[in-house]
């Protein structure tokens, strides 16, 4: 689990919250920038900030830098496969009695929506093994 007190580092994947209906996953890369209707946001300015920070653009617009929790990850995923949402994921975790230390095998990684929640449920000592026959989907989920 990513602590909200941990500082963002170069190479981290974060969730950029632009508005209530616009979020995206971005890999922080020194020298890169995000451009949107609120202005230009330099990735280098994000490094060293804590998750949850509000950052300003060159035009005075702002975004929030959020930790990629399973709940947020599900919302920002490209829906190239059918995904489970939090209510269904909670049911699956409860029904299967998934607890820390469990070892799980998932067939069909898909978008990774369920996978990330399973990983949090078995942490810190468990493990989730997942497989997807579709190489491009597997690479994207990785």
From TrEMBL:
Residue span, tRNA (adenine(58)-N(1))-methyltransferase catalytic subunit TRM61 C-terminal domain: 61-142
Compartments it resides in: Nucleus
Keyword terms of this UniProt record: Methyltransferase, Nucleus, S-adenosyl-L-methionine, Transferase, tRNA processing
BP terms from Gene Ontology: tRNA methylation
Pfam families the UniProt entry points to: GCD14 (PF08704)
Domain of life: Eukaryota
MF annotations from Gene Ontology: tRNA (adenine(58)-N1)-methyltransferase activity
Recorded GO CC terms: nucleus; tRNA (m1A) methyltransferase complex
EC number: 2.1.1.220
PANTHER family: TRNA (ADENINE(58)-N(1))-METHYLTRANSFERASE (PTHR12133), TRNA (ADENINE(58)-N(1))-METHYLTRANSFERASE CATALYTIC SUBUNIT TRMT61A (PTHR12133:SF2)
Name of protein: tRNA (adenine(58)-N(1))-methyltransferase
Organism field: Coptis chinensis
Lineage: Eukaryota, Viridiplantae, Streptophyta, Embryophyta, Tracheophyta
């Amino acid at each position: 689990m990513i602590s909200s007190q941990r500082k963002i580092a170069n190479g981290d994947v974060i969730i950029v919250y632009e508005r209530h209906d616009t979020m995206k996953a971005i890999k922080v890369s020194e020298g890169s920038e995000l451009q949107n209707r609120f202005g230009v946001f330099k990735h280098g300015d994000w490094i060293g900030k804590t998750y949850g920070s509000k950052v300003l653009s060159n035009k005075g617009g702002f975004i929030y830098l959020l930790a990629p929790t399973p709940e947020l990850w599900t919302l920002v995923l490209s829906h190239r496969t059918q995904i489970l949402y939090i209510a269904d994921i909670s049911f699956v975790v409860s029904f299967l009695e998934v607890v820390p230390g469990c070892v799980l095998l998932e067939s069909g990684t898909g978008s990774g929506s369920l996978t990330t929640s399973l990983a949090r449920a078995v942490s810190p000592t468990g493990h989730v093994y997942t497989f997807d026959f579709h190489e491009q989907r597997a690479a994207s989920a990785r």
